[in-house]
Amino acid sequence: MTQGLGLLSVLVWLPIIGGLAVLAVGDRQAGLARWLALAVSVLTFLLSVPLWSGFDTTTAAFQFVEKLPWIPAFNASYHLGVDGISMPLVLLTTLMTIPVVVAAWGSVEKRPAQYLASFLIMEGLMIGVFSALDSLLFYFFWEAMLIPMFLIIGIWGGARRVYATLKFFLYTFLGSVLMLVALVYMYIQAGTYDIVALHKLPLSMTEQYWIFLAFFAAFAVKVPMFPVHTWLPDAHVEAPTGGSVVLAAVMLKMGGYGFLRFSLPIAPDASAALDDFMIVLSLIAVVYIGLVALVQQDMKKLIAYSSIAHMGFVTLGTFLGFAILSAPAAGPAAALGLEGTRLAGAAMGIEGAMVQMVSHGLISGAMFLCVGVMYDRLHSREISAYGGVINVMPKFGALMVLFAMANSGLPGTSGFVGEFLVIIASFKANFWYALLAAVTLILGAAYTLWLIKRVIFGPVANENVARMRDLDARELGVLGALALGVLLLGLWPAPLLEVMQVTVRHLVEQVMTSKLPL
Amino acid sequence: MTPSTLSLATALPEIFLTAAICIVLLVDVFAGAAGRRITPTLTLIVLAGGAALTLAYAQSGTTVELFSGMYVSDPLAVVLKLAGFLFVAVGLLYSRHYLETRGILRGEYYVLALTALLGVFVMISAGSLLTLYIGIELLALSLYAMVAFDRESGVAAEAAMKYFVLGAIASAALLYGMSLIYGLTGSLLLPEIARALQGEASLGLVMGVVFLVVGVAFKFGAVPFHMWVPDVYHGAPSAVALFVSAAPKLGSFALAYRLFVSGLGGVSDTWIQMLAIVAGLSMVAGNLIAIAQTNLKRMLAYSTIGNVGFILAGFVAGTEQGYEAALYYTLVYVLMVLGSFGVILVASRAGFEADELAHYKGLHQRDPGLAFMMLMLMFSTAGIPPFVGFWAKLQIFQVLWATDNMALVLIGAAVSVIGLFYYLRVVKLMYFDEPGDLPTIERRTGVRLALGLNAITVLVLGLMPSALLALCAQVLS
């Protein structure tokens, strides 16, 4: 089966080539570079829409597949394709690049063309990560993406940017190298790097444990899970607004995606055996990190910690399935009247994780953009520097409150759907999991709303705040569009769920099938 | 065409090079001051002509023996020689202006470069221990002289002295090992040795192999015989450091391959264990010590030591794929190190050696193009895709896993992370720091184009690695 280049290749390479073109235009013609970058990002998004409209929701097979020989010596091919898990993430990537480009308009004066080019190149590489069906190609994009992010934080970041970016790179690289070692091991066993073939590769329990842990090193750092999350607050705080948006909205999703694409299907027995470990780490992230977020003085840091807590729901939902499948038949689930087979419960957990990823992509991106808007005006991220912003910036205040509500999981916003699905699923597994997970809804509301109270409401805190001007049309457009997305996804999540349903069901069946000899 | 001339045609690269050396020397002597302009160009023409001849007379896919088996030409030799011509030409191209501004642009430099290359070729085509040794000495003596070429420089003289003394000891060790092997097998010819040495290794053989490993490790600059590398890289003029780090690595690879694989392939257990230790130590020590360096040339020296560990790890696998990986790594590494030293040469100017790390502060603001090339080369050397260095490392991991060398795989993975730090530091200095009052960089289009091409090659080979991989597989099968 050899298919030529297609839509996915265009989505990968158009932003990269566009980024190089922006680089060639150069900083001297910043205006032209900005318009070109905007055109490329919008065009990429428009081109990615057919992925959604042309997606066949009745099959779990990969779609829009492209397969060309790449490195015959390693039996690795240029193999791209999407299924219900990766397609929404590709769309999230193309969507979230636009606000990044637009947000840079007024706020990035230093080497703007290079800034935009880095983001466009990174967009292409991230799409490559989500659509690669060859693990070597996946790794290729996965690592290459670190280079533009390293430069973005290092060049355009805040005061401690060098420390933050080195930490970011080394941390993620350490995990990735271990993943590479595992991939090479499986290549030696299977003779190929093809992901679908690796899904079918029989592995003993010991092998699965080691492979699972190697993948865990790569993906847990990326998500990031407790206790390897410490790079994220540093990176977020020092990164420029756009960097924070991409980091939170897309890059963290790669960890969640990696668990779904690699860890679960390749090492199902090890995943099942280690599910308690993963669930406990997720719950620590959800509860402990939520408490940490409560005491932050820096807005970006607060949102960064909130990201870690929200991503805890993703890993929780991902690994709940095993607990559900092994839970006693007449458990609290039956008592609470939440009917349905265990299979559906496991699928619900994963669907919740997926929705949470997409929704968190929109919400955290929007939150960081909001902080960026305020930072552009006052050049401070300290919560104490603000107060009563709504009095001078009513439009901004309204939108920020909306995003904050979404962040704390208010029904009607996208933040609610994912968390709700995960919490229901966790009831089926264990009452205590559910209780702990639900507690964070309160915690999440507490730190988000307290942030809003201190920054947005109250009397105008000082003269600097009084001089802040409200959103201009550009900022309003970006934030408004994201608000629309958050509401749409919250009120009517069916299309998103429909897209992933068959794939998720297939994944659950896959992980239920033990790879061990009977 | 009689059979004898046909077979002599196989040795054409060496014959041509020897004749060319005489011509270049004579032209330089008689051209006088004008020779300064003629000799570099003439040398480049010689290298291009030699490459063309090698290609034209290459017996594709066959192995030809000459001079009763003392000389051998096989596909591997052809590829290594072509690479040798290319790398020396590129190196000399980068160096010319540097030599000129330091008043050491003399014909002898080019003659020495060519004799060094001839030494590499003799090693590449060696069919016996004797030929190997002649090649090694021809290369080594040329290099000693080149390191000391700037006679005003005390550091260079010290480096050359160190290099010479340690090199002599290593040569002695190698020779001693060879004599033991000769005593055991009664032959100097590698195929004969391979026939005689099969199965169980005797104590005498192990003794001999120990000395051979010492010699090879020294020539490669592997731990614990690496002490000369940082001093030579640091002390020698940057152009010479570039030369030492490039083409001789091809010779070292050929030495290891001919000696261990062609000659001692039947008793591979003996040398594999020793090389595994040397490789592991080199990876760890090279990458760890590199972190502490403040001088870019010294840092690159330790980085070389670390990378040599990876090359030797390919030999440790002891399979055909392992040697392929080692060959690929060698070629790729030389390509990257050429570029890195090229950047140093371009960034230097009269009276200013850009060899301290601090000299690269804010390079991006002073010269974005040069900084970008260095960025690509540093990421490539660190083994980050999409650059070619990644494939070299990946292939080493693959052959090590395939032969169950888990310890080396894990060491390799760990030092890749450690190594990344000091490569990132160079990028950090260039991109994140402010330039201060460092001198501006001269803009010379020719060298820049070559350097740009070098960097782009690193990227293109990274995006499409299959051709070079297939070539390496082809010449060794």
- Principal-axis shape of chain A equals globular
* Stretches with pLDDT under 50, minimum 5 residues of chain A: 335-339
User: How many β-strand stretches of chain B?
Assistant: 2
**Strand order, largest beta sheet of chain B:** 1-2
Tell me, briefly, the overall form of chain B. globular
Question: From N to C, what is the helix and strand string of chain A?
Answer: HHEEHHHHHHHHHHHHHHHHHHHHH
Number of helices of chain B: 21
Q: Report on the biggest sheet of chain B.
A: 2 strands, antiparallel
What is the largest interface, and how many residues per chain? A-B, 34 and 28 residues
Oligomer: heterodimer
What does this structure look like?
The complex is a heterodimer of chains A (518) and B (477). By secondary structure, chain A is mainly alpha-helical. Chain A has a domain of 245 residues. Chain A has 23 helices and two strands. Chain A has a two-stranded antiparallel sheet. In chain A, helix 3 runs antiparallel to helix 22 and helix 19 packs parallel to helix 22. Chain A is globular, with a radius of gyration of 22 Å. Chain B is 78% helix and 1% strand. Chain B is built from 21 helices and two strands. In chain B, strands 1-2 form a two-stranded antiparallel ribbon. In chain B, a hairpin with a 4-residue loop joins strand 1 and strand 2. The longest helix of chain B has 32 residues. Chain B is globular and about 65 Å long. The two termini of chain B are 30 Å apart. The interface between A and B is medium-sized, with 34 and 28 residues.
